[in-house]
Every structure is written in C-alpha cells, then in structure tokens.
Amino acid sequence: MATVYDSTDKSEKGPENGGIERPRHPEKAANPDSPLLRKPKWIRVKAPGSAIYKETREIVKANNLPTVCEEAACPNIGECWDKRHATMMIMGEICTRACAFCNVTTGLPNALNEAEPENVANAVAQLGLEHVVITSVDRDDLDDGGAAHFARVIRAIRARSPETSIEVLTPDFLRKDGALEVVIEAGPDVFNHNLETVPSLYLRVRPGARYFHSLRLLQQAKEINPAQFTKSGIMVGLGETRDEILQMMDDLRSADVDFLTIGQYLQPTRKHSPVDRYVTPEDFANYETIARSKGFLLVSATPLTRSSYHAGDDFAALRRAREASLKKTL
C-alpha cells in the first residue's frame, strides 16, 4: 500500500514548550485554508515500518535528537531510515522564522543543549554512517546564529567517527558577521544552503530571508575553502516560471556551486503556501539536463528529491565528478 504522510497542523506537547500544548504554526492560524491538489501517482510513497526503520528511530530518540525527516514531514523517511540514513536537526525543534512552505514549528526556541554535539556523534557512530547530514532550525536569537554549535557538532563527529564524511545544511546567518567562517573552519566536506525558491517568490514564501544574501553566502563558502563542495536546492511547484528556474541555475553557477537539487514542493497543511502545480518527471529530467549543461558537477532533479536524499551516494558521485573534471584539464 502506498500513502503520503498526514502532516496536518496538530498541537504539540513536549520538552521544547514546557509540556504545554501549543499549536505547531501559530503564525499561520489566521491564514485562509488553501486547496490541496490531489497528488499524482509519481508522488506516492510506501508507509514506513521496517525493522531497520524502527531501529534507526530508536537510536535517534535514545540520543534525544530531532530529525528534519520527522519535523519537515519528509516523504522519503521510510526509504532513508530503512538504510539508517537520518538527517540530524540540531539546536532544537523550534525555528525563529516562519517560511510559508515549512512544517517545522515556529516560535521562541529554548537554550542550546550543550550535550548535543556528543549526542549527535554517538548517534552517527551507532548508526555506522559513512556520510551524515547535519541541519538546523534558524536561530536568529543567537548572536552567531548557532555557528559555533555547528562547529562543535562537526568536531565531535570527527573525533568519534573520523572516516565519516560530513555535510552541513545551514541557515543563512543573515546579519551574523563571521558566522560562516566559523562553520567552514570546522571542516565540513559539503556546505549546503538552500535558496528554496526563485527571488520573485521570496516575499511570499521565504519572507525572513534575502535571495542575494543566500547566493553570496554560497559564494563566500567556496571562496573560503575552494576544495570544499558547495550545494544548494530549490522546490518547484510554488508558482515559479521555467525562465526563473533557468536564471536561478545561472546565479548558482556564478557562485561556483557544485551540486544542485530540485524537488517538488509538497504542502504540509491547508494553512501553508498552496501547491501551484505538480511538475512532471519529464520536466524534472529536462531541468537536470539543462543544469548539467550549465556546468554543475552533479544534479538531482526528481519529484521526491530533497536536500539530503541519497546524500551519501551523491557525495561519492561528487568526488568522482570532480576527479573526472580535473583529468580533463590536464
């Protein structure tokens, strides 16, 4: 049987909010209900429930770690956790931003958990991960946006699992001077920051962010450490045009970004930004062909592509692509 997760806007009760029941998206409560388009057959996924899936969930829970897989209601959670691949979400479960597409809880976060870097390192070792993706909520309340915490997590993983490659998917560190340098100096193998959408939709979809700041962040990451892979992704189906997507590709290449991911936007609740359309697999294949022709080392463009989907395999492919590119220049 195939199903898609129920991510309706339920209230929550837990340690992040003092055990008090609160709505998951209070800032969206007054939004009018938007229609939910029927999902096409190529969006359907199997419900999770394998033994390895459950084991992965228990390891994550035992180390008191939220995952973006759960918080963002990712459709690929069953497949990824069945392979012991879980994307750790650090710095809590509450985000200071209120993006119109995102299922992560909005509000005032709690203090950082000082034990979290070791907890993440323990989970990575227990899962036996060859590649791990670390992401976070936005923490505009912190002076450095959480950059030092990212660095501590990276170093804890390196100390415990030195052979594991590390990918970070960071916030934009808007108005946090010096934050990017702190993360890059910790030595992640891949620096990922998602543009999420085209600039014309930022005010509606990602109002707390700035398109050209995010683009410059990616460019600076490459300037600080040219040997490090850089990566970014967008969602389609929010109302963007084909020409805007192609221009976004050019913008990312001008920032020397190595890897582009493109996936279908899936509306978490009726209060979130509506799906404008479901992009066909054929259109995704066309976007991949065009992106590769523009010079990206790697492109993943499918309806169910997400930033950390098949991240370990993609990292290996990135390394091979760079080696092949270097050989051509010799």
What do these coordinates show?
It is a single chain. Helix 10 links the parallel strand 12 (about 260-265) and strand 13 (about 300). This protein has about 325 residues and is an alpha/beta fold. The longest helix is centred in the C-terminal third of the chain and has 19 residues, at about 310-330. The chain has eleven helices and 13 strands.
What's the topology here?
Elements lengths: L1 E2 L7 E2 L9 E2 L21 E2 L4 H12 L5 H4 L5 H5 L6 E3 L3 E2 L9 E2 L9 H12 L3 E6 L10 H14 L4 E5 L9 H7 L4 E3 L9 H4 L5 H14 L4 E8 L5 H13 L4 E6 L16 H13 L4 E4 L9 H19 L1
Parallel strand pairs: 5-8, 6-7, 8-9, 9-10, 10-11, 11-12, 12-13
Antiparallel strand pairs: 1-4, 2-3
Helix pairs in contact: 4-5, 5-6
What is the arithmetic mean of pLDDT? Answer: 88
Shape descriptor: globular
> How much of the sequence is in beta strands?
5-15%
Question: SSE order in H/E notation?
Answer: EEEEHHHEEEHEHEHEHHEHEHEH
Distance between the first and last residues' Cα: 52 Å
* Strand arrangement in the largest pleated sheet: 5-8-9-10-11-12-13
Helix/strand/pairing category = alpha/beta
Uncertain spans:
1-16
Tell me about the largest β-sheet.
7 strands, parallel
